[in-house]
Every structure is written in structure tokens, then in C-alpha cells.
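User: I'm curious whether this sequence folds into something compact or stays loose and floppy. Could you predict its structure so I can see for myself?
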Amino acid sequence: MAPDPSLPRAAAPFLGFARLLRSHAFAIAPERITSFMQAVTLLGPRSMNDIREAALATLAPSPDRRGEFEAHFRAYFHGDAKPSIEGEEDDETRVKDDRGTREEENQTPRQEKGGELSSAFEQLSSRDFQRDSDALGQFRRKLASALPARRSFRTARTRSRGMLDLRRSLSEIVSADGDIPSPLLRQRQTISRKLLLLVDVSGSMKQHTAEYLKLAHAAVQGADRAEVFTFGTRLTRITSALRIRDREQSLARAAALVDDWDGGTRMGPTLLAFLSVPRFSAFARGACVVILSDGLERGSHAELEIAMRRFSARAFRLSLATPLAGDPRFRPETAALSTILPALDDLVDGSSLGSLTDFILSLARPAPAAASIWKRVS
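Assistant: Here's the prediction. I'll summarize afterward.
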């Protein structure tokens, strides 16, 4: 990236370091970059440690990414050949946004064996979706009215049971030469909450990916505000592709956007990458977040636990729909699932379109927390 000609040449390395961190999904606002360069100016600096301390104080990496931050600092300023970050270089999570020209387009076996196919290695491939009968039409028509609602800060005119619209009422009095007409009232609108679908496209979910994407297309077509992301070893936003009305064309475009079909899975890192992008994180705020995944995390599940707790703090309702729950013998007893269970509002069966559509259409109805339900089942 070419340096900004308006900046002094000495400032270019510091701006470049901040850009490097942002390219690796660190959440760094422009004001922090400005503060970083101002801190370096105030410190002199007399040593590389001064620059490091200024970066830590102003760019403020989260504690769970401190080691990664240090590795990038050494690589950038000290010339290390390779950042000494835990895991291989291929473990870097890439984020892909399908903005395009617009900002905002099989019978499942009851005994699942997803764990045998779960892997942390990246494998890039493509996917082709075949046309089938539109069994999701009823779901699409019901979705907008079935989602939980909230009161908006925007108001609309009403004839009764509203608040006085003082500005327009006074305007009416002035236009009527002082006569007092009937007061004008306004009422806060009620709108549906956002729906955020995060679809696992790793190899262990290969049997379910096609149906999940059809469900996601119906959700985008039916809901007032819906967002869809896929994740495996990478994170890809496919909402714009799913806005295309024709499902076959829409899914074909989505298939072209996603590079990591049927590969490995890095559930924790990809969900943290989602949360590290402010615009993406805003999609989860106050939304119904449904993660379609088997929840099988290879290696350490610490990042997955952190991500789920952050999602729980932002979302109105956080749900994990796993096809493994289609087996009556299923229990959330793996290390990852037992750790994230307290953060979940729902842990439900995701083994069929019928169970998924019924669950999503019931999101407006209150239900006991997932941990309490599965504690009784166990």
C-alpha cells in the first residue's frame, strides 16, 4: 500500500504497522492509530521498547491476542522471518466480504459421525447446488412476523394512544392562526430483530451444508433484516448473494464466493475474527444469532469459549443448532460443548430442515436456558 503523501516519511512505518494489524483482523479504530503516532512523538522515541509500549497502550490488543500482537511487532520492526504465533501460518483466518455493488445476494442420518471428518487443516474447494422443490416457501412467508420484535427509536403518526408530537402540533396551531386543532400524536414503531446465521461449511458438515444454504436463502428473502456468513478455515459474508430472488442463481453465486468448502474447521478463530470487525460485530448486537455447526473444535477450545461469551453479551438470543443432536443419545459432553453451554440460550437439533425451520419460527417464544435443559436430560 502506497504511503500517504500528506504524512511525514518518518510516520510511514507506524502507519504501516497499524495497517498490518488491521489486515490480521485486529479491531483498531482510526483514532487509535492517530494516538499511537502521537505517543511515539511524545516518547522520542529513544528505543524500540518505547515504540512497543506506545503500541500496547494505544492500539490495545485484547489479552487473548497479546502473543499474536507481540509476534507481529517483532516481525515488522525487528525483521523476524516469520511471526512466532501459536500454530502454523495457515491458521490465519481470512475474512471475505461480499459487498459487491451493494452494501447490504437428502435425508439426514439420525446417527451423526461428524467428529471423524473434523479437521483444523484448510482445504479450498467449490460447491454446486442443484435445484429442488421449494419446500421452504411457508417458512419464508412466516419468518418476518415470527421473529422477536423490539421497540424502535423511530416513531410514526397515530390517531390514538401515542405521545404528543409537539413540533408538528405547534406548526398546526401557527398555520391555523392560533386555533387549537386536535393534537397530533406519534408512537414508537415495533420492528423485528435482526437474524444472523453463521453456517459451518467444514468437511464434518458436508452432509448438511446444501440444506443450510437453502435455509439461509429463504431467511434472507423472508426476514426484514438477515445476515449470513459461512465459516470453516475462513470467514465469508454471503448476504448479498442470497438476496438474489432465484435460489439456484443465488446459491451458485454464494458457492463461488466461498473458498473453504468441505475443508478444516477453526470455529473459535473464525468467530473471533467476525467479532473483531466492528461492522460485522454490529450485526450481532441485539440480534437472534443462530450458529449452524456440529460444534466440534479441534485443539484448544479457549478461543471458542471467548467468542461465545462475547456473542452472548451482544446478542438478544444465541443458539447453536447441531446435527449431532438428531441422535437421541447425544449429550453435550465434549470439552468444547460443555464449556460453551452456559453461554448458549439454545442448543437444538440441526439435523433436518424441518427441525431448523420450526426452531427459528419459535424464537419469539421464551424458553429455558440450554444449560438447564441439558442438565435435566443428562
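Summary: The chain has a mean pLDDT of 82. The first strand starts at residue 94 and ends at 97.
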